[in-house]
């Protein structure tokens, strides 16, 4: 893996400006408030210190017998107290507003990110470059609110450091210059340490990714049985420790190497502070400076040094995060899928593949489908069969318009799917894929209703769909029936815990979701692989006696496809045989070879 180069100061500035611009577009009020807050946080402590120093001076004068100093002491103490109260109130308001605005910005940025991701052309989800770009952009969007806060801290630290140095000029310009020079070693040491840590972070990306995946594996209850049965628990725990040591111990060693430089810079800072205090003390004793200047100088020197170190540390800590801004911008510029075209208002009379060939993006040398030509009539029952890797699922992806052929065409009533509004085509389809979604956060009823959320159902349609999918029996045994959660980590409002269901039961729920959708075209890709044979037979008997729907089924079970009106046999991406079950058996060809064992049984 190529190492990521640290950003140059120019790139950092550009990225910070980009974050500010993006923040302003998402929530302009938050940016204005942050800038105002940065000024308050930087300047109010300086003003408080100034009046506290004045109060100290007048207090010393009053102690020495100056009768006019009493009123000044009360004035400056009151101002200091008021400023302290304002600072306290401001922090409370700031914490609330920051939390609210952080939520606003994070929500807007992440929503835009997810919405754009879900609008891309489908081929991009198989494109490694797009997914890598998405991962980096997603990381930026997830940490955006944090980055925004850190940038505000950088601005505040910068203002605080510059203001403290300028404030010292009012005491003595030589002292101000002296402190400015003394800041450089500390800033340099912090810069070296921060850059080394960031470089270490970038070099161990794969180790952290491996560690995250490993920790996910060992903390998922569904994996624990296999981990124990295969005696993998201690092996993975040992591997986890090695990965942590490789990353964390190395980071500690980096800090150890910079200890001498850090000690030297701290010594310079301490010496500079002591020299400043000795100088101001001598000035006060010689009555060349008022007593309060001691407090003033001590606070300004301390503030200048701490703000400068914090500035460098914060800027370096977000180096990698703001670098991902460029990936975020590139990702957001990726074109969304085209949604214009002819609107389908009815179920097409014919679906035709005309000499279709296809290869996946980035894999031009391997044609998954080659010169496919076939026709599906309205309300026809079609089966597509073939060994694993024959191209069956890819054929479905082209039929549904998720991919476009690399040559040839898929046509609906003679109209190329490229010229059709794909959303209007999808409304005609009900598709159950091998990797169907399990909505673990939802109830059984909602898992069915998600087949078509626009249907306003009182419950009858869900009941019918569950019955058609042979799911009624196990649903009735759940604690709250269809209103039960199908995940034992979930719980209803009245405290009834969910129940974990089996793979076959999940498949029935997904099938019920498809039936609930009630589409004129039903596409089933290995729809009953985890369902027992008797239930499957009943489900498909019901399906294939429905003459008002087009059924397209992919299956390796002979009992599933034998009643189809026509069967297409695929091998190596080509249609090698076509016919009914009896016709293909009589040919004694590829179809017969594939199902020979089931035929004899």
What does this structure look like?
- There is one protein chain.
- The chain has 601 residues and is of the alpha/beta class.
- The chain contains 22 helices and 10 strands.
- It has helices at residues 9-26, 28-63, 69-117, 128-142, 144-169, 173-203, 205-219, 221-229, 233-257, 259-285, 292-317, 319-332, 392-399, 422-426, 444-449, 460-468, 472-476, 503-517, 533-544, 558-561, 581-587, 590-600; strands at residues 350-358, 369-377, 381-386, 407-412, 415-416, 429-432, 521-525, 550-554, 566-571, 574-579.
- Strand 7, helix 19 and strand 8 form a beta-alpha-beta unit.
- Mean pLDDT is 82; it is low at 1-5.
Strand and helix map with partners:
Layout: H1 9-26, H2 28-63, H3 69-117, H4 128-142, H5 144-169, H6 173-203, H7 205-219, H8 221-229, H9 233-257, H10 259-285, H11 292-317, H12 319-332, E1 350-358, E2 369-377, E3 381-386, H13 392-399, E4 407-412, E5 415-416, H14 422-426, E6 429-432, H15 444-449, H16 460-468, H17 472-476, H18 503-517, E7 521-525, H19 533-544, E8 550-554, H20 558-561, E9 566-571, E10 574-579, H21 581-587, H22 590-600
Parallel strand pairs: 3-8, 3-9, 6-7, 7-8
Antiparallel strand pairs: 1-2, 1-4, 4-5, 9-10
Helix pairs in contact: 1-2, 1-5, 1-12, 2-3, 2-5, 2-11, 3-4, 3-5, 4-12, 5-6, 5-11, 6-9, 6-10, 6-11, 7-9, 10-11, 16-18
Count of runs of 4 or more consecutive helical residues: 22
Give the biggest beta sheet.
6 strands, mixed
First and last CA, distance:
53 Å
Spatial shape? elongated
Q: Percent helix among the residues?
A: 55-70%
Radius of gyration: 35 Å
Pick out the low-confidence regions: 1-5
Strand content: 5-15%
Main structural class: alpha/beta
Strand order of the largest sheet: 6-7-8-3-9-10
